[in-house]
Amino acid sequence: MKSREESLEILRSKVKTKNLLKHMLAVEAIMRGLARRFNEDENLWGMSGLMHDIDIDEYGKDPSQHGKVGAQWLKDLGYEESIVNAVLAHAGHKKPENRLETALFASDPLSGLIISAALIHPTKRLASIDTTFVLNRFSEKRFAAGARRDDIKKCEEIGLSLEEFVTIALDSMKGISDELGL
CA 26 to CA 118: how far, in whole Å? Predict the structure, then answer.
């Protein structure tokens, strides 16, 4: 497996938008937290979160290509097939078929919901919000409308309640709040 440092270098060569890089770091943190919860390979799960949007700057506005191109790049770079498949699944190019793929599929939109929730809090800090605050925003359909609620609820397919999933994700993101600027 490629090192995190090597992967970050690859990402920085492909993704130039700071907020997109922060999003990818947030999803990596969530995936690491989920790996710990399920006693899975934290590096493998974290890497899938870190690299899931590698093609976002070039293909993010083209849903027919976003994820497909990134998966091919990762395959060509020698990343594990499980990461390649998770990238395809997160973008809707294949049905999530296992816990890793489903976790990434659900974590991607949840990271955006959590960041949006933090940004509406007067402190604009992750440390100032809790699971209840995020769940209240979850039920407000107009809030962070791009955070696909049905995709987030896929957490139930891997044995997590929505509340537990939000708690793991929020705690994981709080652990890297300085990197996220939140």
Answer: 13
* Residues 107, 160: Cα–Cα separation, whole Å: 12
Print the SS3 string covering 64-118.
CCCCHHHHHHHHHCCCCHHHHHHHHHHCCCCCCCCHHHHHHHHHHHHHHHHHHHH
**pTM, entire model:** 0.96
**Which domains are delineated in the chain?**
4-180 (1.10.3210)
Q: What is the pLDDT along the chain (182 residues), one digit of tens a residue?
A: 899 999 999 999 999 999 999 999 999 999 999 999 999 999 999 999 999 999 999 888 888 999 999 999 999 999 999 999 999 999 999 999 999 999 999 999 999 999 999 999 999 999 999 999 999 999 998 999 889 999 999 999 999 999 999 999 999 999 999 999 99
